[in-house]
Amino acid sequence: MMPLDASFPAKRLVHMLSEANVCAVIVSQAKYVDVNILKLSVPTIGVSAKSFVSSSKPANSIIQACPHDEAYIVYTSGSTGKPKGIPVLHSSAVNAISSEFGGFEILEGMRVMQFRAIASDVFQWELWKTLSCGACVVFRGEDALDTLSKVDVVSSTPTGLSLFGDPTQFPNLKCVAVGGESLPFALKELWCNHVTLINCYGPSECAIRTHEHELAKSQAVTIGKPTKNTNCYVLDEQQRQVPVGVIGELYLGGICVSPGYINLPQQTTERFLPDPFAPQNGNMYRTGDIGRLLSNGHFEILGRNDAQVKLKGYRIELDEVADAMMQHPGVISAAVIVKDDTHLVGYFSPPHVDTQALEDTVSDQLPTYMVPAVWVGLKEMPLNTGGKIDKSGLALLSVQSELDIVMTDIEKQMASVWAAVLKVNVNDIGRKTSFFALGGDSISVVKVVNACRKRGLLISVSRLIKARQLWRVAEAVSRKAS
């Protein structure tokens, strides 16, 4: 199976479906027309909830899967300008799903929320781990906070967790799994007294999760020890194991490792290497994460060593975003950086390129979370001594003057609300800034709507999601208020 997000650009969806060699696409009736427009070369099957209920009798599968068959495929950002397809085998998936969940047991009848994006590998855990325990998957509704108040377990990024607010608002919540980015110590301390808080780690290339560790108050944040049938090594530049406490790059081996990227032999060779420490297990995966092994056997993640970043839990290759910018016929040079750990800034030259046209070009190729929130045009890019774009120099440039100035009182109030909820600088928000490009998600949408209501500004969740850009959202508020 390969879950797809229908909101992805058509070009990206077509590429993924073609490369993964799918035999059919199953889609809800609500999205059937949108998918059918793509004119896929494989059958598109529309289904409804009623059809599942009316035909819910158990049936024997005609096809019997074996451990080395592919269980699912997920796509992540790729430095070549195209997303990377990652097949995960049944043996890897079953190992991940059957592993202990950081000491917390999901019991029959419990309610587990589907919170992460459907196209992410964590969705596979939310679905199959829950069903394998006899528990109930609760798909998030328009008001994600309302759904959250009715479940026992949820998996979130630390950014998402910070938007939940006061833990006491969710008395039914028993367990929260966090992963995808670094967990701030203060946020960990806030939640530890109220729920079982489990810190999870694992790249998509290694079947969802390779580490799951229950965190305790006043203790350091680590990812704990590897799950069953998983090996974790900290190696130097010559791929030799380093002593305990010494910083190196994390490599993962064992049953969790994917066969490699679809149709990307060079990148597969670079990332999936023979495991010299356990040759019988085949390959080990080079994560690109920097970390160390502690004296208690736990592993600690300290950052990354390449151009890949994690923003709001999403893996993003900055070069892929820059490559998408270069597809605009007027752009001759482009670069992308992360600002304040909250959003992307896209730099381009020459400066006269229309930013709306550039944003449209990028949006046609990439998911919303990969589209820069701020655009900066330069006469020429700063270069380092090697003649390459100096990204550290870009980070020093002011971007406030590049934004369309917020004009009306409602726009100013809305910008203030966005800045407070998303924890971004209000000066980074212009009239054409997209809420989702700043890192907005289903939780922060609800927060914004509630904050607006306190100011006497009325807008629904669905209207905000549809409007996206600040000026359009402000217009929707104006019409609603009048």
TrEMBL record:
InterPro entries: ACP-like_sf (IPR036736), AMP-bd_C (IPR025110), AMP-bd_C_sf (IPR045851), AMP-binding_CS (IPR020845), AMP-dep_synth/lig_dom (IPR000873), ANL_N_sf (IPR042099), PP-bd_ACP (IPR009081). Pfam families: AMP-binding, AMP-binding_C, PP-binding. One of its GO terms (molecular function) is phosphopantetheine binding. GO terms for cellular component: cytoplasm. Residues 405-481 form the Carrier domain. It comes from the Eukaryota. One of its GO terms (biological process) is amino acid activation for nonribosomal peptide biosynthetic process. Coiled coil: none annotated. CDD domains: A_NRPS (cd05930). PANTHER family: FATTY ACID SYNTHASE, NONRIBOSOMAL PEPTIDE SYNTHETASE. This is Aste57867_22788 protein. It comes from Aphanomyces stellatus.
